[in-house]
Amino acid sequence: MTPLLRGQESEGGFGIYVHWPFCMAKCPYCDFNSHVRHQPVDQLRFTAAFAREMATMRERTGPRTISSIFLGGGTPSLMEPETVGSVLNEIAKNWTVPDNIEITLEANPTSVEANRFRGYRAAGVNRVSLGVQALNDADLRRLGRMHNVEEALVAIGLARDIFPRLSFDLIYARPDQTIEAWREELNRAISYAADHLSLYQLTIEEGTPFYQLWKAGKLITPDGDHAAALYAETQDVTAGRGLPAYEISNHAAPGAESQHNLVYWRYGEYVGVGPGAHGRFIENGKRAVTITERHPETWVSRVESNGHGVVEEELLTGEQEGDEFLLMGLRLVEGIDLARYERLTGHGVKEKRVISLAEQGLIEYIGNSRIRTTPEGAIVLNAVIADLAA
Ligand code: SF4
Q: Which residues form the Radical SAM core domain (predicted)?
């Protein structure tokens, strides 16, 4: 039997990520690659650029079978359904897209965007991830969101009727948030029958308006102990309601885990298309990293002139792959396969270190060749990874 070359079979899956970089307004905590335009965006021009960059990426990856597609942003629910349909058609022209793979679109729950949901479903989207963020109007205003709770609930109801799968995001560890208030909000969120929740702690990113307020002492976020208690409460409530964590911030009913996110955390491969998109895929036996131009109009011009908007790239060494594999995989409740670490790096993790971390209660074995972090280890994940990778 001819052995498979690296990249012919994809350990961890092979996803396509498409970045739509525009938003109606910039949220004060956001450091994503998102931009506000006061003129209509030329969606046809962007569609043509997505198609062109995909064709270039297809030349690099060769023929592959896709395991998931994710339209993220920015706010992809500002795309016309025709734009989404064209992007999905282009993906299918370049790679093999099996029936029923997960195709997710991130959406904001304003009424304008919810009106496009049927069009997205008709275009092939089968999972929507709603940026609900809070079920409390005062906090939604404080987070600079464009929707209120009432609109969010209408969008959730509509999404549940239209899409086979629904996830939504909430931000917690918000200023003044008590454990009781969060518990009540989380229980309410679960009762809206999403099969997947992404629950992120509010983080203050440098360069954002929230960072300025925080530095000036005008925005107080929970201290470490309170944040840890909110995290513990999150784990308890979600597990008790049938949506246990499968990753540090992601919770799902069994079988409803996001296949696309799993591609990242299982250290699979993905092509990133659009402004500021990252990709990681096997090319000539090595893992290539690609990063495209962040500024949307500059990205389009680059694609129009060069066939792609890639501005940074590198080929990873086995050692770098091993570090990334630990970094991603130890976020997962299913943990990592030590044999794969050895295949990537050419050597195993140091047994002495594994034993020492296990003795400290930070990691545990699952069977003979898998390890994962314990809940205590998850809180100090970076230190655990640094120790294992040293
Ligand atoms: S909608 Fe999302 S991507 Fe856009 S500014 Fe707000 S947080 Fe950032």
A: 8-244
